[in-house]
Amino acid sequence: MTEKCPANIYGRRLREARNSYGLSQEKLGIAARLDQSVAGSRVSRYETGKHEVKLGLQKLFAKALALPLKYFYIEDDEEARLIAEASRSDKPVKLKEAIERKLKGK
Amino acid sequence: MTEKCPANIYGRRLREARNSYGLSQEKLGIAARLDQSVAGSRVSRYETGKHEVKLGLQKLFAKALALPLKYFYIEDDEEARLIAEASRSDKPVKLKEAIERKLKGK
DNA sequence: ACACTAAGAAACTCTTAGCTG
DNA sequence: CAGCTAAGAGTTTCTTAGTGT
């Protein structure tokens, strides 16, 4: 464990969203089509703000987490929470389970 | 002139916002604290999607244009327009003029 | 299992200078 | 003037391998 504090807004929201699904960094990375061998270390650096995320990968994270791109740049916590709820209420199925089902399917 | 088509959402919104103020690429770059010698060519590549913008500079663009960070990642045109209006209606002074005043002050 | 990191390899962006309408 | 781009210089990220909890 021992999570380090995110240093920018994107990393903060990414970690928030991942934790809300109870996913590990590696599993989130795999859900976003990163190779398993690098998924954990890359997500770690994105969350802590060591590296920035290219737009193509931002889209994959957004899709995997069922959130709009803009979510990761919303600075107000309350607004972010509302958007997250609204985005997910569209989907009746629990997404954590959907993601983990996909991962096992491979 | 001869504007090339933006290849991603960030570039599209950046150009939109810049045009709404009637600023040139060079002037926008200078307003975001880029050196005059590079301002035009860099903004050009950000808008056309050749290069991606680091978060630190995204914040400077957002501030110069009086828009929230998330604006540049809103995919729906109608929503983007609404946010732009709302963000600017806070400010009674016309921002194009404010920006150009700053530029001349140097 | 989970989160994180150093170091060299690989990929990207920046500056300069110059082109087109 | 306004927008765009090639190429080498400069900077960042990626992969690998490994640390510590």
From TrEMBL, chains A, B:
**Molecular-function annotations in GO:** DNA binding
What SUPFAM superfamilies does UniProt report for this protein, alphabetically?
lambda repressor-like DNA-binding domains
Record-linked InterPro entries: Cro/C1-type_HTH, Lambda_DNA-bd_dom_sf
Question: HTH cro/C1-type domain: which residues?
Answer: 14-72
A Pfam cross-reference name: HTH_31
Superkingdom of this entry's organism? Answer: Bacteria
Q: What is this protein called?
A: Helix-turn-helix domain-containing protein
The species this protein was found in: Rhodanobacter denitrificans
